[in-house]
Amino acid sequence: MTVLAELNSLWGSGSPPDLQSVVAIAATAAEPLELLELLRVDQQRRWQAGAGLSVDEYLLECRRLPLRMDWALELLAGEMLSRSGLQPMTAAELRDRFPAYVELPEYLPSVVTGTDSDVMESVCEHFERLCATDGRVPKLEFMLAGVAPRLRRDVFPRLLSIDLQWQQRRGATVVPQTWLQRFPWYGAAVQEVFGVVAGAVAGETAEHLSEQTVVPTDGSGMATADRGGAAVYGAGAGTAAIGRLGDYELLSELGRGGMGVVYRARQVSLNRLVALKTVLGVSGAGSQEVLRFRNEAESAANLRHPGIVGVYEVGEAGGRHYYSMEYIEGQDLSCLIRRNSLSGERAAAYLRQLAEAVEYAHEHGVLHRDLKPQNVLVDAEGRLRITDFGLAKRVQADSQLTGDFSVMGTPSYMPPEQAQAGRGPAGPWSDIYSLGAVLYELLTARPPFRADNPLETMRQLLEDDPIAPRLLNPRIALDLETICLKCLEKDPARRYASARLLSDELGRFLEGRPILARPLGRVQRVWRLCRRHPRESILSLLIFSAIVVGGLGVGWQWLRAESNLQRATRNFELLDRAADEMLVVVEEWVTRTPPRTEAQQQRLSSSLRLFEAFLNEEPANRAARRRLAETHARVAEIRRLLRQLDRAAHHFREAVRIFHEL
After folding, report:
1. Domain co-membership, 122 together with 14
2. Residue ranges in 171-248 assigned as alpha helix (H)
3. Cβ(440)–Cβ(466) below 8 Å
4. What is the CATH number of the domain that holds 296?
5. Each residue of 624-654: pLDDT tens digit?
């Protein structure tokens, strides 16, 4: 079964499959183009189903594949093509998300109907027009990214021929090694095209050309020169550069934040792989952004600890500020949290590593102020490395960046004193809070506070207590929950006094020894709630008091009513038995001595009125209705003896009706 057939099987249910499963299939592809074809098909289907994934989400998975390529370029082209008829990507969105690829839309093909040959002919004509434009050297990688992977082997030789012809017309001497490095999967095509084009244009074969006089594009549209003055190209084995910044070749984009973009790059002079961070945007960065960027670089550059990503160099090139740092092969902690269910012991061990690194930074006078899983890298050996000191502050320094209060940081991990003025200054205790928020997410797979928008999240962190971790994950040990909640205390004085004390506490937990912190009791939690919300607490107390007093009053009245009902029930039962006995006596008296005189009949009629008053009631229970039917029958008999036959017949009918209902 081909990888595309396996992908179709995953999509068989109609709903988008899990991305990890798709990438797992892609990893079994026989060749790079087959892998790219699978990812393009998956991207297109997701956007058509209204469940499109961003390039960043694909990048998190694709970087684990063994194949080395510019994943950001390929996936970005796939997303833009998939969205073209649905939600086209705007120029502003592209510039903000992928500033290194702002030219890509110029290379993407317009809608072409017809055969594959028609499509390839259109692509080649478009590339020819771009090459003919004065003052620019088109990027062949960008052109290929817009071509369906299944057509690339056929169209690549034609595009390469066009590229080489225009390179040589501009006076560049070309050799195959450069293009073999840039396009390692098209080796045979490169050798074939060089044998034809180089000989036809330069009058000699490629084998006779000097490899020391290479002047091709470096992928950024500009030639670069070595120290001897000859222009050279070198992006690293098997990897094409997407740009150049000073001594650094930009190989691919790793990520971006609110301040800058991070590239995987090669420092040419030292031939080493680095991570290069630049201020977002090519130029025009305001003084505040530049100062904050340099502050980040200088804060991290003074720290040398195995738990902190080291900074190599801080500089500027072409008006663009940058700094280079260690390149960590791995993933950030947030990816690890999403993919794995961490045990309490593993979460505690991870946080202990972070606490030790933070303590080192504090000892050297640096506060991080933006600790979160996204700013923690996990290297290939499972060690954690803190990065992104963009909001770092020197404890003893007066920083002009923070003279006035401004909210900086990520709301879900930000301590209250950093979120609202008047709650005291930020200090080492602020990083302790953020470490607690990271531990909370390690344990529960969610931050302590998260809402639909940042303002609501900040309201929660200022006013609410976090949900106890054990309510979200019952497997968490009580001691570990206690450590986590102590870090998340809103009052800095109630948190651990230093990262060292937090690290020691976690050590006690991991070694199975008793911890020093104690969980809050129920009374303390209620008292804290009342102190945090005094007006709501007073109102709640008044309402509760009214409910209690009202409930007592209603209860007292109910008891009295219940007592009266019981007495009434007993009296009715006595009256009922007395009336029944009296009815029997009257019936016997009438039977033995029928009333002769008018006075006797009147006395009997008065007695009957008492019985008939009982008959006017309509009791609901079965026993009482049986008694009612018997009374009707006896009264009917007395009426018959009194020669009141019509009224006697009425009582007989009522007796029969009630007996039938029973």
Report:
1. yes
2. 176-182, 187-202
3. yes
4. 3.30.200.20
5. 677 777 777 877 877 777 778 888 888 888 8
